[in-house]
Structure formats: structure tokens, C-alpha cells
Specification:
- About 30% of the residues lie in helices and about 25% in strands.
- It has two helices and four strands; from the N terminus they run E-H-E-E-H-E.
- A four-stranded antiparallel sheet has the order 2-3-1-4, covered by helices on one side.
- The longest helix has 15 residues, at about 15-30.
Length: about 100
């Protein structure tokens, strides 16, 4: 299923900047960055729950926010992309 993750981390302190980097790295380990603080992750349900828990343990809920949008398995009809930064075709061939 495709999950869209967005976040806003308060970066006015060194700790906030560290949290921002940790959130971005964690999201990158599950998917691809499509905007500065937006990631698309093609993951299964258990990965989704793990990712939620891992990100919740990184952020400061009093200062930061996370949003998860579950687009499901039929996401290709729900995503329209215009402009630069083309996304990876998760269903396409993998060339190594």
C-alpha cells in the first residue's frame, strides 16, 4: 500500500534539527522523498505500524507533527503528479 508521510519539526534548537534529520533518514529508509518534508512509502501493514512507532519515538509531540495518509493499494489512480521530481514506479522493473 502507498502511504504518504508529511512532517513538520520545530528546528529552532539543535535538538530540533537533530530530530528533523532523524525523521528524514527514517522515512528515507522506507520510501522516497517527493517534497522537502513529504515521503511516499510503498509498504505493508506491519511496516506501516513499525514506521509510525519509530517516528513517534523520534519527534517531540509538543513541538512537532506527523501526518500519515494511507492511499491503499490502488494508489495509481489517486496520485496526480505535475512538474519536476518524477516519482519512482513501484510496480515497474528494477534495473540494477
Amino acid at each position: 500500500m502507498l502511504v504518504l508521510i508529511t512532517y513538520d519539526v520545530k528546528t529552532e534548537s539543535p535538538d530540533g534539527r537533530r530530530r528533523l534529520n532523524r525523521v528524514a533518514k527514517k522515512c528515507l529508509s522506507y520510501g522516497q522523498r517527493v517534497q522537502n518534508s513529504v515521503f511516499e512509502c510503498n509498504i505493508d501493514w506491519s511496516q506501516y505500524l513499525n514506521l509510525q512507532n519509530e517516528l513517534k519515538s523520534i519527534i517531540n509531540a509538543n513541538e512537532d507533527s506527523l501526518r500519515f495518509y494511507n492511499l491503499g493499494n490502488n494508489y495509481s489512480k489517486k496520485v496526480i503528479h505535475i512538474g519536476t521530481k518524477p516519482s519512482v514506479d513501484f510496480e515497474g522493473s528494477l534495473i540494477v
